[in-house]
Each structure stands twice: as C-alpha cells, then as structure tokens.
Design brief:
The protein has helices spanning about 5-30, 35-40. It has about 80 residues and is mostly helical.
Length: about 80
C-alpha cells in the first residue's frame, strides 16, 4: 500500500494539470517556451504517475483494465 501522502500528491498534480491544460496548449501553439517555463512544474502531464486504484502502487500498473489495478492486486 502506498503512503496516503503520495496518493494525495498525485491527486493535486492531476488537478493542476487540468487547471493549466488550456494555457499550456496556447503557449505551445505559439511556441512561447519562456511562458511555458513560468508555469508550475506540476502543470506538465509528464509528471503524473499512473497508480493502482486499489493499493496506490505505481509499478506493475495496467491501464488496459477497466478498474486500473496493478498486476499484484488483480484476481487470478
């Protein structure tokens, strides 16, 4: 089980990415890299981590499952 702080931190990152998505798209379309660098680092979608919805585990994550769980939590 992942620590709750890591899970909450990732949730905050998701909210930040959604908040700045339109602004980032406009800046990238204008190729304004100086403007992009002034945005928060967590506004970049690359910084998001795929986590298991049941345990919060980040490794062994399978996005193909509807419930998005790691391979260790899946029933066999």
């Amino acid at each position: 089980m992942a620590k709750k702080a890591w899970i909450e931190r990732n949730k905050r990152k998701v909210e930040t990415v959604k908040k700045y998505a339109v602004i980032r798209a406009e800046l990238k379309a204008r190729r304004d890299y100086a403007g992009l660098s002034k945005l928060p680092r967590n506004a970049s979608p690359v910084r998001l981590v795929n986590r298991c919805s049941a345990s919060g585990r980040r490794h062994g994550y399978s996005a193909s499952l509807a419930s998005r769980v790691s391979r260790f939590v899946r029933p066999r």
